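User: Structure please.
Assistant: Input sequence and predicted structure:
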Amino acid sequence: MRALEVAPDHVHVLVEHSSSTAIHEIAKAFKGRSSRLLRQEFPHLCKLPSLWPRSYFYDTTGAVTTARIEAYINDPHHGE
């Protein structure tokens, strides 16, 4: 993972991965692990059937450099 920002209603994650790994596998892994960790820390969440929706959005860094995207995610002021 190159960069991470957690907002109240969404998460930005910049990930480098091999071309043999499908995007849906990466999303599933992040959602699965974070769900497990959150449920361990906050047991009342175990009552919920799911913590994350099945949907996700992804884009490639082809139009903008990876460094620029990483800077955007790491800039605490971009959401203001």
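Residues 3-74 form a domain with the Alpha-Beta Plaits fold (CATH 3.30.70.1290).
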